[in-house]
Amino acid sequence: MTKFIIRIFILVLSLFTFIINAQIKKIGVPFITNYSPKTYKAASENWDVIQDSKGMMFFANHFGIMQFDGVRWSIVTQPDNRSMVRSLAIDKHDKIYVGAQGDFGYTIQLPNGQYQYTSLVKLLPVSEKNFGDVLHTIIRKDEVVFFSHETIFIFKNNKIKILGSKTSFDDFFEVGKEIYVTDNEKGLLKLKDDKLVPVENGQKFVGMQVRKIFQIKNGLLLFTQKNGIFIYTQNQIRPFVTEVDHLLKENQISAGLQLSDGYFGIGTRQSGLIVIDSSGHLIQHIDKQIGLQNEYVTNFKIDKEGNLWVTLKGGISQIQISSPLSKIIDNSNSETKIYCSQIYQNKLYIATDNGLFWLNWEDYKNGKRENVHFLHVSGMSENVWNVGVFRNSLLAFEKNGIYEINSNSAKAIAKIDGVWKGILVPNHPDLLLAGGYTGLYLLKNINGNWVYQHKIKGFEESSRIIETDKEGNIWIAHGYKGIYKLKFKKTFDTVTDIQFYNEKSGFPSSLFLNVFKIDDDILFGTTKGVYRQDLSSKKMIPQRALKKYLGLENHIRLLKADNQDNIWYVSGENTGRIIEKKDYNFQKEELPFRKLRYLYIPGFENIQTTADGNVFFGTQEGLIHYSAVKNKKYQRKYKAVISEVKCIFPKDSLLFSSRYDVLPNKNGSHDKLSAVLAYSNNALHFSFSSLFFDDAEATQYEYWLEGFEPTWSDYSLQTEKEYTNLPEKEYIFHVRAKNIYDVVSEEAVFRFEVLPPWYRTIWAYIMYFALYSVVIYLIIRYQKLVAGRQREQLIENQEIELLRSRAELNEQKLTFEQENMNIMRENLEATINLKNAKVASSTVNLIHLNEILLSIKELIGQIDKKNEPNVNFSLLTKINKIIDHELQGDKQWNEFEEIFNQLHDNFMQRLKATYPELTPRDMRLCAYLRMNFNTKEIAPLLGISVRGVEDTRYRIRKKLQLPSDANITEFILNF
């Protein structure tokens, strides 16, 4: 019952302590991550810092606005005049307002990741464009205030109101909902209704060089550059006395910040960062000697995780002020590997690989660190494996033996070749058992002093891990062999019984076994959880209670109980504690200790606890302190981001990036992101990160290309991923992060589509279909043609057969018909010959008749009318006419023409049709020429003289348009 009451009291006390101490840790130095100009590859000077709604960090750098996404640094934009950026402010829509040197404006992020800067100086009249650095930028409701020493610019409704000074302004302050300005002539002024209104007794501030103002109860707290801190209340200014006045006055205040827990952060020009409480007590002083990379603090802000980002004249530092863990370091701390720690007589001792060191713990934890350093304990310079308090004596166990420590000196009490640790023998508080490299040693306390007795016989194994049970048995773990259980003689000089346990005894393995004592119970750490010995079977079995919290999969490297009945453990890579709650319920706590992963010395994990709640972890990077005074939220949501997307071919063709001047859209003309890619761009490179900055390098990522991969990848530290030869398809790239506290981020996605190659486009398929149709049509047509030809061939063959059969039958008929045809040809030839003979005969008779008629006509013409008076000339004339009529008559000619055309293929019609200008006489002459008559034969037929025939031939030649050398008779014969 008493134990239960005590536990309740301790629990209430711890809760009360937590409530009143929910502040920045005063003990130790917070973890600091420094980012040098070589890391972020920009100018060394940084002047301001902001964080957007997603969690992205932005810094006012000499080269422009610099962005940090937890993995990569990049300059995202610059003012139009390429000047340094001095101040930043961000609104709820993530529009960033920028104050630069001789310029101010705003920037927004475009869909393709780029940031576009817009200058507002164009809204100013020419006379007001000559100003210097815009040192402060503040957003208030619907207006933005830009401050320079020469002018105050108030931007509202796309207009700028200008407030000037007769001399110059000194500084500008946002205090709660009010804005104050110090004027070098008028003193302290208040900005009200876009006007500068003097504050009562504001003249008192002239020349004070106020650099920061905070609202306090009934007044203002003023940080001055060279004169320290003052309180302004009831129109009176009085100094605010602090423990660091000399530091503030000597090193000049450059910036100030009121922290969330009521403390004040003070940035100096020459001494880094100073944190004080509301009473002026020093809480932290972080300078270059203990981790800050530069002494000149220009500004600082707290991010969403509670980390303090400090901008410096030379770099950027992140200080994890919200962590319950801190490093116990000082200016002279050079040791690294810590094997053990112990507080004794208000001194903190640490056992290292370079000897034993100590410092004044009371002064250190109370902030008096200027003259508090780790001092070397003389006489111990080798590996000190352990240090502990035994009956009010501090003993150190070292490579060369056992030493008693008195303040800063060591006295050897046992020169032994290597001792690991010591442990009191149960029921014998005056006996100390020491485990050595090659066995066990006994020490005895005589008159308050520990005296070496002897080496215990019968056991020669290395005894680095040693515990005792309530029966007085000694349990020793050998990491490579197993567990030994020893019993001694009553004189403690000889081992009387040795029992050995290994894999055959029930352990999952004989390697890496440990032995621990929790609430008087002996427990064993194995590679598969915590084991205990079953009393009945003597076999090793899993410990049921701890199995629920530590499982059976992790290597249990350390178990240790503190005086509040919490069980501290190192399981695998995780450190934690199992806290006992009401009704013997327990709670497992690991998240605050995730930073300790991979920091322990393997095999020498050590945790030291004190009655007042201090916990020390010895690591390879020094001594780390823990106190549960910070209410840090480990489960805070955060975002994963895709930093950059680029096509590998063509080389580094960027699709999405926030890096300055890498995408061709400086004027915003390409403000719509195109994620439709040609097939030639089907190889992509993704860069990603998470907006979680607490141990960002330990954040792990998993990714999934939906449409290409079946599921998420395994978590890894990889922050880039490439895909090549992606088929045409729509894809979604997913990525999410898991921080050191195992909190999974909101996922980031990038949607894109890879178009098919030209030969797999819809038009190509239409063309393929058309070609296929044509081919099918041609094949069908060809088959039809072949079938038709075959059918025709069959028909032809059948016809041939039929013709053959008929040929034989018709052969006689054909012979008969041939004979008939020959007969008909002979008859026809006879008819033609007959007609030719008739024509020839007619022609001859006609020629003869015409010759007679011409002779008669000639004789009639010879009768002389005068000499022949008795002749009847009228009768002669009539005879002449008859003769002329006969010579020119058409009766014989018509018969001749009919027969002639039949014999000569319508010669007359063809000639008349071709040469219509020929007269009937000409036609007759041509017919006689066709019959190959000569001129003398033709003359009688035409009833003209030979000379007349020649003239007629000449006229016909001209009508036929024959050249002079052409033979008219040959032309007529060939016509």
TrEMBL record:
List all membrane-crossing ranges. Answer: 762-780
- Tell me the superkingdom of the source: Bacteria
Q: What is this protein called?
A: Triple tyrosine motif-containing protein
Pfam families listed in its UniProt record: Y_Y_Y
Instruction: Name the species this protein comes from.
Output: Flavobacterium artemisiae
* Gene3D superfamilies for the chain: Immunoglobulins (2.60.40.10), Winged helix-like DNA-binding domain superfamily/Winged helix DNA-binding domain (1.10.10.10), YVTN repeat-like/Quinoprotein amine dehydrogenase (2.130.10.10)
Q: Name the UniProt key words of this record, in alphabetical order.
A: Coiled coil, Membrane, Phosphoprotein, Transmembrane, Transmembrane helix
Q: Does the keyword Transferase apply?
A: no
Query: From which residue to which does any coiled coil extend?
Result: 795-826
**In this protein, which residues make up the domain named HTH luxR-type?**
915-972
